[in-house]
UniProtKB/TrEMBL annotation:
Keywords: Iron, Metal-binding, Oxidoreductase. Belongs to the iron/ascorbate-dependent oxidoreductase family. GO terms for molecular function: 2-oxoglutarate-dependent dioxygenase activity; metal ion binding. The keyword Metal-binding applies. Gene3D superfamilies: B-lactam Antibiotic, Isopenicillin N Synthase, Chain (2.60.120.330). Residues 209-309, 771-871 form the Fe2OG dioxygenase domain. GO terms for biological process: coumarin biosynthetic process; response to molecule of fungal origin. PROSITE patterns: FE2OG_OXY (PS51471). InterPro entries: DIOX_N, IPNS-like_FE2OG_OXY, IPNS-like_sf, Oxoglu/Fe-dep_dioxygenase_dom, Plant_2OG-oxidoreductases. The keyword Iron applies. It comes from Oldenlandia corymbosa var. corymbosa. This is OLC1v1031414C1.
Amino acid sequence: METEVGNAIKPTGFSLPVENVQQLASRNLQEIPNRYIRPELITHEVSVNESSQIPVIDMSKLVAGNPGYDTEMSKLHQACREWGFFQLTNHGAAVEIETMKAAAQEFFKLPLEQKMVYAQLPNTNLEGYGQAFVVSDDQKLDWSDMFILYTLPITARNLSFWPNNPTSFRSSLEEYSCKLHRICASLYELMAKNLRADFKEFMDMHQDMVQAIRMNYYPPCSQADKVVGFTPHSDGSQLTLLVQVDEVEGLQIRHNGKWVPVKPLPGAIIVNIGDALEIMSNGEYRSIEHRAVVNPEKERMSIAAFHTPDFAATIGPLSNLVKENGAKYKTVKYADYVKMYLNSSRNGKSLLDNLFRFLLKTCNNLASKSLKDIPYRYIQPESKTHEVSVNESLQIPVIDMSKLTSGNIGYQSEMSKLHQACKDWGFFQLINHGVATEIENMKTVAQDFFNLPLEEKMLYAQLPNTSIEGYGQAHVISDDQKLDWSDLFLIFTLPVYARNMNFWPNNPNISDGSQLSLLIQANEVEGLQIRNNGKWIPVKPLPGAIIVNIGDMMELGLEQYLSMDTNVTYTINHVDVLLPVENVQHLASKKLEAVPHRYIQSEIRTDKVSVQESSQVPVIDMSKLATGSSEHQTEMSKLHQAGKDWGFFQLINHGARTGIENMKVAVQEFFKLPLEEKMVYAQLPGGLEGYGQSFVFSDDQTLDWNDMLFIYAQPISARNMRFWPNNPTSFRSTLEEYSRELHRICISLYTMMAMNLGVEFAKFANMYQECVQAIRMNYYPPCSSADKVIGFAPHSDGTLLTLLVQVNEVQGLQIRKNDKWIPIQPLPGAIIVNIGDIMEMMTNGKYRSIEHRAVVNSLKERLSIAAFHLPSTEAKIGPLPDLVKENAAKYKTMKYEDYLKMFLGSRLNGKSMLDNVRISN
């Protein structure tokens, strides 16, 4: 699977979970587990004498005009050609390297349970804490743990994997990443000159530079001569920049058939050429095979920064390097190379040699190996012993769909045949169905898919412990179960909201759990058999026919119809999963005569609505709140009164008009996308972030008439870029600007409110710590029964402040004051501000959170954007000390995380959540 992240694509080279090696080593085992024993890898000759010959390049001399420039350029060229490896000194990154080394050491010292917070996710990509390149359950393992992070481009970052313990880790990694990126870009330019290549062509070939940083931990091992820290391999990168964290040696490179130990110079960066650069240089520069060995007494750590082309880039020999000798390597999409690289076990430079040198070899699957003996788990002779009745094949019913049209001469007769087929057989072939063209197209598509190399099909592999959707096998529920000799590719297609577009590009003696199964024979090879009267009957598909069989659900619903056991034979040599809630925008597009019962909430709409009071809603002019303004005091007083009496106001002249208008356009474009494109950003089970609905906790819960896209925007470390749409193309940059502008406004309002409350801003800020911002884009489709549904149930926000923007002219927001609902008529360009529960708690009730709801229009859609500003989850919230001197605390002091769990884990119901933390008199 590939996941789109900005301009970068992270290829999903996944690694099977195995035991943490650091933890394993801490047990002081007498015997090393067999999977780690690999003495054959340590038997090759090691040449210690050649260590001193490894090239050293002084980067300070590689500046044009420097007296030693030409000599150093020649040394660099020779190092890349003969070694593919060198140590780089005087690079200007000494401070950043030392800081990063300290951060890596602190991370690996953390208890295992803290490191596991950042563990790799199954079957996604290698990012996170774990191991790399474990592709089978019986594979030999390396004696190491690793922690890999995508760092560049910034859009590729998944900050949920970036540790905030140690506290300096993120800032250290940011600085380290930037410095190494600069060094790498300089080396590219110098190498292009040495190769006499067009630097623009060189840069165009790799497009946006991608950087991934892997921190390696090699525990000591008492049997170090029997294990290997990292299997011999070459890197799939252009350049890898490695830093030795401690003084323990372990890196070895292969040169002239011997292993040469590398003795890192103090402060040096170790640079090695990767496969991608060997391809681009047409073999003039060599990627280097290397390995890591283990010390019997001391741990070893290193940090490798891989610099690669953008995964969408096409790489091949540079044009000026093939004029004399012709191309030695294929031109390929870099993503294709990386997919194979990440999904294969390491074996020197075999991947580069076997796959991308001319001629290209193909991959084999199990059946293509011409095995003498079929693996035991597939042997099921007992299933083939039942009687097979070939004679009865001709009796299988055939139904002509063209005759099933009311008024047709053969209608009654064909209807009777259909009825009989369902009763007696549970199975029939359907002809003249009117979809012959579509069937032929689909047959071609299916054949093409199964003809793909295995690694391409595996991009759509089933995810573990979720559902059977994807490419793989079905109904495998134990490790010793007998297996079918088949693969399948299963996709949920309808309703549209159930589709998982990540998966888009047969069974033993069981009946289908569907109502009807429609089967198409894709080629001429027979194999389907049905069980009738205790005998297996081979099915001979009619040309172009659809084979229909009754499923269990149809038999249960209509007891007189039979579900049919099916069996497939072969020719020789040939969780709890969260149920999705239907997308409301899609539901509304069906123009239903009656709204589904789960959306009916007419009782919510019976309260009194006071249109007259709309004009009384406070309006605050932010330009007048500036200190020194002649109207500062008056506007400050209005702001204070709005917080006390209303908990709500409209803010004008805020200076963010352009950012708001751009964001409104981006949101409208997003909700106009086809459903399948929006579903790319769908919420994950159990998560709120992404596209979907909120606060749905049960299958029988009444639902709101809206869809939403929810994204964490601040702090930057909280962002998960997989949920940030890149369609429309301007969405991310627009959201970035919008987030920044509203954050600025929010901080200004906090400052003004603290002044009005007579509280030091520092105390106010300390209470909420790092400001968190989450942005929710709301879409309320029109509804013909608008008086019976609710767009958003009445609630108050669990925030400090919420800043809301009305996207279009359709009204719908209402606030509750004095037991009446007051419709809000947004002023052009205004930001609607409402006080949240946390602000009410912090001000000890002096400022009020406002209960509000959204109603639906019968004819027009409505869109809005809400920016929630919250304390850090680690912050303690409660009345500010200065505000409880005269009046006792009215609210409990608690961790915001605890409040948030209650808020997000319960059905919205007015201000009931705030009532739960009120202190009783």
